[in-house]
Amino acid sequence: MRLFALCLALCLLAACAADVPPTVQVNRTQPPTQTQVVIAFPQIPTHFDPVLGFGGGGHGGGHRLLFSTLVDIAPDMSVIPGLAYSYAVCGDALTYAFTLRTGVYFTDGAPVTAADVVFSFEEMMRSPTGIDLTMVADVAASGDTVSITLRNPMSTFILNVAQVAILPQHAYGPGFALAPIGSGPFTLAQFDAGQQFILEANPAYHGQIPLIARAVFVQIGDENARLAAVRSGTVDIAPTSPILAGVDIPGYHLLVAETVDNLGIVLPTIPNTGERNRFGYPVGCNIGHERDFRRAIAHGIDREAIVRYALNGFGRPAFSENDGLPWSNPQSVIEHDIAYAVSLLEGLGWQPGADGIREREGVRASLPLLYPAGDSARQAVGMAVTQQAREALGIEFAVTGLSWDEIATRMFSQPLVLAWGSLNPMTSFYLFHSSRAGLDDFFNPQNFRSAVVDAHLERAVAARTLEEAAVHFRAAQWDGSTGTSMRGECPYIFLINKQHLYWVRDGLYTGRRRPHGHGSAWPLVHNLGEWRWAQ
């Protein structure tokens, strides 16, 4: 206890809205007359337990509808108060101390306590939800303060904290997954497996009481069926695709959400020497492993044309894993320059063959390009790249759809269309740090390694704050000499960022939103508590 008190004394208060009073004043403003919304959802959950991955395993944000988190992330990616009205970071950056609001209750009437927070983190640490808490060494409570001690400093840890739903220790157990008790802005009123679930506003919520008193989530998996539901007026909002987004529907408008949900291609960065990796699969490729071959493709592809071809115009060019986020480097942007791309290829000795496909020492610049069968967006991107690469660069790709199991055996030695999208800068570490090279988690199958990039990423992770870390994350992309960007080592050829598209009934305001990551369903309703109907 003395150690804990000493740590608190040494802590430096973070700017997590320390001006918010610790005692909650519940807003009981009456909602407007029109208080229901019907949402077409591609797939509703099978349960509502965050420990088991409800709401996108933390990354999708769906758990915040029913549960509180210690902090939340604002549309501008700043950290804002949640269940904790302030937090502090100790001088060694190993311990975070969170001071909880008082007067917060679970929906069964029990108060939310520091012990519940400790219990929740311990449960999440034991679960395979996709929320990374492996860096946590200890969680402890003292009064209304919770301290979390890390094994090593981690600048992005506060983003992980924002993913952890706070559970009721007294009520968590068998049956909880289908009858959840939380302290979030909504409660679960009804669940019909495979059909729908209904949320109702929590009148005792510690923040702004939602103006949407009732939200009905109807499962409609097929995009054409969602179109029919919108046309018939049976739903108020529905995700749609770039192909259907141009349909004019009276009484509805198209909501376009910006994202970091990107598509690109990776090529092995090492030659094939006949060796196999720890999983028994071949690694490396003798065509395309050279940096300038990859850079030639990166500069020679017209990204705007891919947006038009593959996304019907609903997207934008991508130049990194996190375009537009605070830790992205604007110098990662490159120009479409076919002449420069050709000069790179010819500098490597690749010359046009009789049929226009380049050759070097009797070897054609011909490669497969893998994508997961059934993923029409990745297939369309692959086809667009194939056409441009052949016509502009003399590189031949054969677009090949495979199962994920088949891709897992070939991704270490053959080019692959990949998709990523995360609001956490640790994604850059997973994609490009040498310790992640060649793992079977799809982050770095190309086996990229760089001591310079490693140093930047390690300094980013060890930084005290996200703001300090952003400087080093940006340097990892481009430090003036090298980096992971396509003007540097180019281990990943980023092509396009999707835009997430939704039909919305006129008069429904869906609030401010932060950029969407990968996946379009849960990010849409992350801020459901802000939605309202026009008066």
Q: How many helical stretches?
A: 13
CATH architect. name of the largest domain = 3-Layer(aba) Sandwich
Helix content: 10-25%
The rounded distance between the terminal residues' Cα atoms is 54 Å
Structural class given helices, strands, pairing? alpha+beta
Question: What is the arithmetic mean of pLDDT?
Answer: 91
Rg, Å, rounded: 25 Å
Any idea of the CATH class of the largest domain?
Alpha Beta
Q: What shape does the CA trace take? A: globular
Total domain modules: 2
- Find the CATH superfamily of the largest domain: Periplasmic binding protein-like II
Q: Characterize the largest beta sheet: strand count, sense, and whether it forms a barrel.
A: 5 strands, antiparallel
Strands, count: 25
The CATH topology annotation of the largest domain reads as: D-Maltodextrin-Binding Protein, domain 2
What does this structure look like?
With 535 residues, the chain is of the alpha+beta class. It has two domains: 2-243 and 499-533, D-Maltodextrin-Binding Protein, domain 2 (3-Layer(aba) Sandwich), CATH 3.40.190.10; 262-498, Dipeptide-binding Protein, Domain 3 (Dipeptide-binding Protein, domain 3, Roll). It is 23% helix and 22% strand. It is built from 13 helices and 25 strands. The strands form eight sheets. It has a five-stranded antiparallel sheet, with helices on both faces. Strands 2-11-10-9 form a four-stranded mixed sheet, with no helix packed on it. It is globular and about 75 Å long. The protein starts with a helix and ends with a strand.
